[in-house]
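Escalated from tier 1: iron/sulfur cluster holo job.
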Amino acid sequence: MKAPDWFPRGLCSGADTDRWLTERLPGGTRRTARAKRLCKGCPVLTDCARFAVTTHSTDYVFAGVALDKDGNTQRYDRLRRIAGMPPRKKSAA
Ligand code: SF4
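Tier 2 regenerated the structure:
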């Protein structure tokens, strides 16, 4: 996938992207705390959040939100709020 136009302005552009990986290390810990802190000051935070939602991204921290392989529904909701997107429609039960 081609990197979006805004990506070079992101604070993670050119950084060690392993810091944004959400896989758990042996012992169950993650190394994403620094990435989350950097995201808070990123000039493309809202673009990044929108990108993560619209591409159903996984496995990385986007806009300060750690996305796993699956089960990201509530985290996508947080990203939607960050991006200024309307809440997703709830499915009828
Ligand atoms: S918000 Fe975080 S993950 Fe997104 S571009 Fe910025 S630094 Fe990278």
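Strands lie at 61-62, 65-66.
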